[in-house]
From TrEMBL:
SUPFAM superfamilies: SGNH hydrolase (SSF52266). InterPro entries: Acyl_transf_3_dom (IPR002656), Acyltransferase_3 (IPR050879), SGNH (IPR043968). It comes from Trinickia violacea. The keyword Oxidoreductase does not apply. Keywords: Acyltransferase, Membrane, Transferase, Transmembrane, Transmembrane helix. This is Acyltransferase. GO terms for cellular component: membrane.
Length: 651
C-alpha cells in the first residue's frame, strides 16, 4: 500500500488548491479494505491485492494536482514538497518499524531477525521493492513470513516522488510539453510492464519503471482536471458506475494465478480513474464513497495498511503455520485499533499541530537511526546472542571450543593447514586411547578428558572438520587425504591400545567404514569402538528452546523432548550398529544414551543444567561427559586402562 497523500488538504503549502473530497477517502477505504481482507482471508477476496493499484491512481492524482498546480501558480518549492512528504509518511512508518524491531528482538530467531533487519533497512531507505526484486515473488510461500513485505509499494511511490517532481519542474514553462511528458512516460512504462510480465514477472511486479504508469494515469487525470476545471456533470454518474463495476470486476477476476500486473491491471486502474474523474457529486461517489464509515477508514488507511501485515505475519510465525481464522480476525481488529491511535495521536499532531522547529530534520535522523539498526541486525546475523541469553534463563552453555576441542592443534578447521600439533598425543607411558574423526569426534573429546580423572590412560586426538575417518585417504577431498595420512602415521607410530571412531555419519560412510577398520587392525590394534550418530535437531538447540517458548505460550522446553528433532536418526543408528557388528567392533549407541521413549535430552545436570548440544548436533562438554560416563564399559575404557588410585585419609 503506497503512502497515500491526504486528500483532506485545503490550499497546500505549495499554493496549489486541493479541495477536500470525502469520496476519495471512501475510495481509499475500499482499496485498503480489499488488501487487508486478501491478506487475512484470501479465499474471501482473491483479487483484493489490486487495492494497491487503486492507491497508485489516487496518489498519482493528488501528487499531480499539487505539483502541477504549484508549478502553474509559481509557488512550487522542492523543500516544501519533500518536507510535507516527510511529515506525511515518516511518523507512522517509524512507529511500525520500531514496533517490528522490538517484537523481533524478543520473539524472533536469529535468521528471522536477520531477515527482519534487512527489511527494516530497506523500508527505512524506501527501497523495499528493489530488495524484494532480488528475492522471491509476492505470492511465494516465503512472502508469508516477511513482516515488511508490503512496504514494496511505498518504495515505488517514494521513487516516483524523487523522479517526477524534477521532470515536471523541467517542463514548467510549457504546459503542452508537460502533457506529452506524462503521456510518453506513461505509455513507455505500461509497455515495459506488458512486455516483461510474462518472462520476468517479479521484475514487472516490483520494478518502479513498470509501475510508474499507474501513478502517471492518476497524474494525467490531474493534468486534465486542471486544464478543464468544469466537470461534465451529465457523464459523471455513468463514469462513477462504470468505474465501480471495473473495480468490482478486478476483485472477482484477478487472482494470484493471473499474470499480473500486465493487462489485468487496467481493470482497477481505469476503474479508480473513472471514479475520481466522475467528481464528488456523481451518484456512487456521493451515496457510497462519501459515507462516514468509509471516509473514516480512508483517513486511517495509511497506518492501517502499515500495521495489518506485520501483525498477520507475526501471528503466523508464533503459530508456526497459518493461524486459525479467529486469530487472524483478532490481528485485523488490533490493526484497526493501532491505526486509529496512530492517526489521532501521531500523524495528526505532527502534520497539522503546532509548528516545531527542526521537526522534519528530527524525523529524518530517526529514520536514519532505524535504518542503521536494521543494517546492524542483518550484518550481525540476527544478533543471535539474544537467543542464547533466553536459553540461558533455563540452562547454561559456558565453554570455548578453542580450548575444549583443542582447535587449530588437534582439531583442524577447513582453513587450517593439514598439520596436527605435536601435543595431540599425551606424553607418558600409560595406555593410549586414540580418537579419530571429524568435529563430532572433537565434541566428545572433553568427555574423554574428564574420564582421565578416573582411569589412567593417555589420549591422542586426531580430528578435522568434514573429515570422517574413511579410507582410502583421498575418499573425501585432498585436504582430508592429508589429514588421514597424518592420522594413520600417528596411529602406526604410537600403537594405541584403543581406537575410537566417531563422525557425523551418513549411510554411505557406514557402508565403507569396514575399510578403515581393516587398516587399523592391520596396524596391530585389537580394540576398536564405533560411536553412533547423536540426536540432531532441526535448528540449533538454543533456537529450539526459543521456538518451543514462542509456540507453547512461554513454556520451557522439557529436559527430554521430541520437539524439533530430526527424523531418521534411529534408522541411521541401526545402520551404524549393523556396520559395527559386521566389522566385529564394539558399538556405542549415542542415541540410546541420550534418548528414550520420552524424547532426547535437551539439558543435563541439576538446577538449570546445561544444554546437551550447542548447535544442531555437536555435543557440549556436559553432553560429551554424559555420553562418555554412561557408555564407559562399551567404550572399553576399563578393559585397557586401570582405575586411578584414590587416597583415603583417617579421621
Amino acid at each position: 500500500m503506497p503512502a497515500d497523500l491526504s486528500s483532506s488538504a485545503t490550499p497546500s503549502s505549495n499554493g496549489a488548491h486541493v479541495a477536500y473530497r470525502p469520496d476519495i477517502d471512501g475510495l481509499r477505504a475500499i482499496a485498503v479494505s480489499s488488501v487487508v481482507i486478501f491478506h487475512a482471508f484470501p479465499a474471501l477476496l482473491r483479487g483484493g491485492f489490486v487495492g494497491v493499484d487503486v492507491f497508485f491512481i489516487i496518489s498519482g492524482y493528488l501528487i499531480g494536482t499539487i505539483i502541477l498546480g504549484g508549478l502553474a501558480a509559481g509557488t512550487f518549492r522542492f523543500s516544501t514538497f519533500y518536507a510535507r512528504r516527510v511529515k506525511r509518511i515518516f511518523p507512522a512508518l517509524l512507529l511500525v518499524l520500531i514496533a517490528c524491531y522490538g517484537f523481533g528482538w524478543f520473539e524472533l530467531l536469529a535468521e528471522e531477525f536477520k531477515e527482519l533487519g534487512k527489511q527494516i533497512a530497506a523500508g527505512a531507505g524506501f527501497v523495499s521493492n528493489l530488495a524484494l526484486w532480488q528475492e522471491a515473488g509476492y505470492f511465494d510461500t516465503a512472502a508469508e513470513t516477511k513482516p515488511l513485505l508490503h512496504l514494496w509499494s511505498l518504495g515505488v511511490e517514494e521513487q516516483f516522488y524523487i523522479f517526477w517532481p524534477i521532470a515536471l519542474w523541467l517542463t514548467r514553462r510549457n504546459r503542452r510539453a508537460q502533457g506529452w511528458l506524462i503521456v510518453i512516460v506513461g505509455i513507455a512504462s505500461f509497455a515495459l510492464n506488458v512486455f516483461t510480465v510474462g518472462s520476468h514477472s517479479v521484475a514487472a511486479f516490483y520494478s518502479p519503471f513498470s509501475r510508474f504508469w499507474e501513478l502517471l494515469m492518476g497524474c494525467s487525470l490531474a493534468f486534465l482536471t486542471l486544464e478543464r476545471t468544469a466537470a461534465a456533470a451529465k457523464s459523471g454518474n455513468f463514469m462513477s458506475i462504470t468505474g465501480a463495476l471495473l473495480i468490482a470486476a478486478s476483485f472477482a477476476l484477478v487472482n494470484s494465478k493471473r499474470v499480473f500486473p500486465g493487462w489485468w491491471a487496467l481493470l482497477p486502474t481505469i476503474g479508480a480513474t473513472l471514479l475520481i474523474a466522475a467528481g464528488p457529486n456523481a451518484w456512487v461517489n456521493r451515496n457510497v464513497l462519501s459515507r462516514k464509515p468509509l471516509v473514516w477508514i480512508g483517513l486511517i488507511s495509511f497506518p492501517l495498511y502499515l500495521w495489518h501485515w506485520p501483525l498477520l505475519v507475526f501471528a503466523r510465525l508464533i503459530e508456526g503455520e497459518l493461524p486459525a481464522w479467529p486469530i487472524r480476525a483478532e490481528a485485523v481488529a488490533l490493526s484497526l485499533v493501532l491505526a486509529t491511535a496512530t492517526y489521532l495521536l501521531i500523524e495528526t499532531p505532527i502534520r497539522f499541530g503546532q509548528r516545531i522547529p527542526g521537526r522534519v530534520a528530527a524525523l529524518c535522523i530517526l529514520m536514519l537511526g532505524v535504518g542503521y539498526a536494521g543494517v546492524n541486525a542483518y550484518q550481525r546475523d540476527g544478533l543471535s546472542f539474544r537467543i542464547t541469553s533466553m536459553a540461558s534463563r533455563f540452562t547454561t552453555t559456558r565453554f570455548d571450543t578453542t580450548k575444549s576441542w583443542r582447535e587449530h592443534v588437534c582439531f583442524l578447521e577447513s582453513s587450517d593447514r593439514a598439520e596436527f600439533g605435536s601435543a595431540c598425543v599425551d606424553s607418558g607411558h600409560g595406555p593410549l586411547v586414540f580418537l579419530w574423526g571429524d568435529s563430532f569426534a572433537a565434541a566428545i573429546s572433553p568427555g574423554l578428558r574428564d574420564l582421565q580423572s578416573h582411569y589412567d590412560f593417555r589420549l591422542a586426538q586426531y580430528t578435522a572438520s568434514g573429515c570422517p575417518p574413511l579410507l582410502p585417504a583421498d575418499a573425501r577431498d585432498p585436504r582430508c587425504a592429508r589429514v588421514h595420512q597424518q592420522s594413520l602415521a600417528a596411529l602406526r607410530e604410537t600403537h594405541p591400545d584403543l581406537v575410537i571412531l566417531d563422525a557425523n555419519w551418513i549411510s554411505s560412510d557406514l557402508a565403507s567404514i569396514k575399510d578403515s577398520i581393516a587398516e587399523i587392525r592391520a596396524d596391530g590394534v585389537k580394540n576398536i569402538v564405533l560411536v553412533g550418530p547423536v540426536p540432531q535437531w532441526n535448528d540449533a538447540l538454543p533456537n529450539v528452546y526459543w521456538l518451543y517458548w514462542r509456540k507453547n505460550h512461554h513454556q520451557i522446553l522439557p529436559p527430554r523432548s521430541s520437539f524439533g528433532l530430526v527424523a531418521g536418526i534411529p534408522e541411521l543408528d541401526g545402520e551404524a550398529r549393523n556396520a559395527a557388528a559386521a566389522a566385529g567392533v564394539r558399538y556405542v549407541s549415542a542415541l540410546g544414551v541420550l534418548c528414550d521413549s520420552d524424547g532426547c535430552l535437551t539439558r543435563t545436570g541439576a538446577g538449570k543444567g546445561e544444554l546437551t548440544v550447542f548447535d544442531r548436533a555437536h555435543l557440549t562438554p556436559a553432553g560429551a561427559k554424559l555420553l562418555v560416563d554412561s557408555s564407559v564399559d562399551q567404550l572399553l575404557i576399563p578393559s585397557v586402562a586401570p582405575p586411578r588410585q584414590t587416597s583415603s585419609g583417617a579421621m
